[in-house]
Amino acid sequence: MADTSTEPGHASGPPHAGRRLVALLLASHLGPTVVVTSLCTALAVAVGAPAGTVLLVLGTVLAGQLSIGWSNDWLDAARDLAVGRTDKPVVSGGVTAAGLRTAALVAVAASVVLSVPTGAAPVVAHLVVVAMGWAYNLGLKSSAVSWLPYAVAFGALPTFVVLALPGDARPAVWLVAVGALLGVGAHLANVLPDLDDDAATGVRGLPHRMGRRATAVLAPATLAVAVGVAVVDPPGPPRGATVVVGVLAVAVACAAGVTAVVRPRSRAPFPLVMLVAALCVGALVTTGLEGAVGHP
């Protein structure tokens, strides 16, 4: 029988049920999962979706994000063990890699089932989101186009929300662009603290190829462009509240970039990026989302 003492997720005995649940939640990348789900749900409310559709959006996006988070920690288990990432539940023994694989697959199936009542087009849009997340985890993170899954997935999220509305609603191009730009900014900021660990295990995505300083500059710049699109592109002149929220979002984006340079190992830039995303949604809401939803 093979020695399993160094296998990811190995512990001296099976973890307690409560500990396993906590580990599963942590392995889901809980912060980003909650933020993305909350923002999509808020967007659904803002565009006037009926209560039933809002609940379907919430459940579908939550299941999809859980699957992406769990698949990430499952597929990265060996790498995390190699660099001593004891903050990862699968390394510390709270959950096994096999357990995460099962959870990820169940969550994918749940996201499909939950999205079916919204219609064929929304199902496809959300499948694109999940497929991009899994494609990143399966290897695109190590390529020069590591940014692409984030851009496509974050652009597809508002597309899913709008397509889920009753009738023949279509998302405005600028709304999709805001999501895509936020996704690229999130990718750049998320990778910054792990550049050294990634390099040690052979991961060389776009941020690794550009270097820490260039990535720390490009991340807030991309976020600032996203904010600009959210403030300027909706029809009509920007409202005062929209401009105020936009300026605040740009300031937070700059703070994320400065933090990444001054404190290279800090994980603060990514939560700051999530705050920028929330502020972007806030800016969109203050515009009344006029022009965000069109009809063919």
UniProtKB/TrEMBL annotation:
<dbReference type="Pfam" id="PF01040">
    <property type="entry name" value="UbiA"/>
</dbReference>
<feature type="transmembrane region" description="Helical">
    <location>
        <begin position="120"/>
        <end position="140"/>
    </location>
</feature>
<protein>
    <submittedName>
        <fullName>UbiA family prenyltransferase</fullName>
    </submittedName>
</protein>
<feature type="transmembrane region" description="Helical">
    <location>
        <begin position="21"/>
        <end position="45"/>
    </location>
</feature>
<feature type="transmembrane region" description="Helical">
    <location>
        <begin position="172"/>
        <end position="193"/>
    </location>
</feature>
<keyword id="KW-1133">Transmembrane helix</keyword>
<feature type="transmembrane region" description="Helical">
    <location>
        <begin position="269"/>
        <end position="289"/>
    </location>
</feature>
<feature type="transmembrane region" description="Helical">
    <location>
        <begin position="147"/>
        <end position="166"/>
    </location>
</feature>
<feature type="transmembrane region" description="Helical">
    <location>
        <begin position="214"/>
        <end position="232"/>
    </location>
</feature>
<dbReference type="InterPro" id="IPR000537">
    <property type="entry name" value="UbiA_prenyltransferase"/>
</dbReference>
<feature type="transmembrane region" description="Helical">
    <location>
        <begin position="90"/>
        <end position="114"/>
    </location>
</feature>
<feature type="transmembrane region" description="Helical">
    <location>
        <begin position="51"/>
        <end position="70"/>
    </location>
</feature>
<keyword id="KW-0812">Transmembrane</keyword>
<feature type="transmembrane region" description="Helical">
    <location>
        <begin position="244"/>
        <end position="262"/>
    </location>
</feature>
<dbReference type="InterPro" id="IPR044878">
    <property type="entry name" value="UbiA_sf"/>
</dbReference>
<keyword id="KW-0472">Membrane</keyword>
